[in-house]
Design goal:
25% of the residues lie in helices and 28% in strands. The chain is built from six helices and eight strands; from the N terminus they run ααβααβαββββαββ.
Length: 203
């Protein structure tokens, strides 16, 4: 479990909620399956070299999407089990939003070279709960995954986050970690979002 946490792999224990959902979408793709998809995604009119490049380097894509007939089918305790992982050292919060009708959290992990090595998106609405966890090097063109029919839902979920707009910050490579001690931003710090949705700096 410790090694999984360091890699950015989340524990998505939501099976008990699937029984209450009117619709459930589960995607579990490991590295070998993603590499196989990269080798075949160029067949026919769905060919996308950028998507192939993304898939070839990823270690895992995990999606849990649940739709409920009425509010109250999941609890704050269910959300906390995921939020506690995103609050752990190594994750940096890009966006965190809470209101009466929605709770959203986007967080990433970086390596020492500034490359994003994991991404997590939690979006909780009264009748819908979505969690996306992607593990592996993430280039700027992650939204290109939407070109693959089998991952259309992922592309839709990630499409906004991969574009430069106020609601969804662009997830991009950050400057490498300074070699000298002091003056750098530790991987355990959170990034406070500006009003335009971009990370303003550590808090």
């Amino acid at each position: 479990l410790a090694l999984a946490a360091q890699s950015g792999l989340l524990r998505l224990n939501l099976d008990h909620l699937a029984e209450r959902a009117v619709k459930s979408n589960v995607v579990t793709l490991g590295g070998s399956m993603l590499r196989s998809m990269a080798g075949n995604s160029g067949i026919g009119h769905t060919g996308n070299a950028q998507a192939d490049a993304v898939l070839a380097h990823l270690k895992g894509i995990y999606i849990r999407e649940l739709k409920f007939a009425k509010p109250g089918e999941y609890s704050q305790r269910d959300l906390h089990a995921i939020m506690a992982q995103l609050a752990a050292p190594g994750w940096q919060t890009i966006v965190r939003h809470s209101s009466a009708n929605e709770q959203a959290w986007i967080a990433v992990r970086h390596n020492d070279e500034g490359v994003i090595t994991a991404l997590a998106i939690l979006d909780a609405k009264p009748t819908k709960l979505s969690v996306v966890n992607i593990v592996g090097p993430l280039p700027d063109g992650l939204g290109s995954l939407g070109a693959l029919g089998a991952l259309g839902n992922l592309g839709k979920t990630m499409g906004g986050a991969a574009h430069h707009d106020p609601q969804h910050p662009k997830l991009q490579k950050r400057p490498p970690k300074p070699a000298a001690a002091g003056g750098g931003t530790s991987h355990g710090q959170r990034m406070a979002p500006r009003r335009d949705g971009h990370a303003a700096g550590p808090v």
